[in-house]
Amino acid sequence: MSDLPSYQSFAVDVAEGIAHVRFNRPDSLNSMTKAFWLELPRCMQDIEARTDARVIVISSTGKHFSAGMDLGVFSDPTAVPMTGDPGRMAENLRRVVLQLQDTLTSLEKVRLPVLAAIQGGCIGGALDLVCAADSRYCTADAYFTIKETELGMTADVGTLQRLPRLMPQGVVRELAYTGRKLSAGEAKDLGFVNAVYDDQDAMLDGVMVVARQIAANSPLAVTGCKEMLNYSRDHSVEDSLRYMATWQAGMFRPGDMMKTFQAKAQKTAPKYDALFPVKGLFE
Q1: How far apart are CA 11 and CA 20, in angstroms?
Q2: InterPro entries under this entry (predicted)?
C-alpha cells in the first residue's frame, strides 16, 4: 500500500490493521479549522484507498479532545459572504452547512469501524464528530457539551440528528436547550460511551485492544456489520431484513468461514484477505 499524504490538522499512523488518526494541534485546543473540514473526508478516503487498515481510531493530543468549530471558518468572506442579496447569501450558507455535515458523515460512510477516544472537553462541533463514530470511549475528566446554544445558534452539523439515537430524548433535549456539560460518568450511564478510563494512556491502551479485536476478524464480515447497522438505524425492521437478505446473497462467500474453522482446528489465528482498496474508476 502507498504512503498516506500529510495533513495539517492531524497525523495518521497505520499498524496492525489499525489506522490511528490523531488530532495534533493541542496549542489551539484542536479546534476544527477550515483545513480540518476539508481534510477529514479526504483522510477517510485515503485510508480506504491507500492502506490495508481494518479499523480507524480517532484520538487527540493535549488537555482537550477538541474545542469544536474554529470561528475562522465563518470569518472567510469568500466562503460565507455576509453582504449582498439575502436570498443568495442564504443559499450559499446552506451549501456551506451541507459541506460541513458531509465532512462528519464521512465517518459513517467509510466502510471501516471508527472508534473515538476522547479526553477533556468535547465541545460543539467535536460532539457532532464523535456522534458519527461507531463507538466512543473517554477519560474520567471528559465532558461533552452542545456549546452552540450558549453562543446563540442551533447546532447544525449532526448532534441534534444523531445524539437522540444514542441516548434518551429527554436528556438530549435538556443538553441542547441548556448547553450544560455532560460528564463522563453520566455519558457512560446513558450508554453514550462504552467505557471510561482513568487517564488518556489507559484509554488508548483499552481502545487499541478493541481495535485489534476488530482487525482480527474478517474485514468483509465487519464491513457488512457496519453497513447493516447503519441501514437498520434509518429503516424499518422489515426493510432492513430484506436488505440483509440481499447483502448476504451478494456478498457472503464461504472462504472466510473455512479459514476460521481451519484456524480453530489448528489452534492458530485466522488470516483473512484484505478488502480491495476503494479507488476511483480509473485510478
Answers
A1: 8
A2: ClpP/crotonase-like_dom_sf, Ech1-like, Enoyl-CoA_hydra/iso, Enoyl-CoA_hydra_C
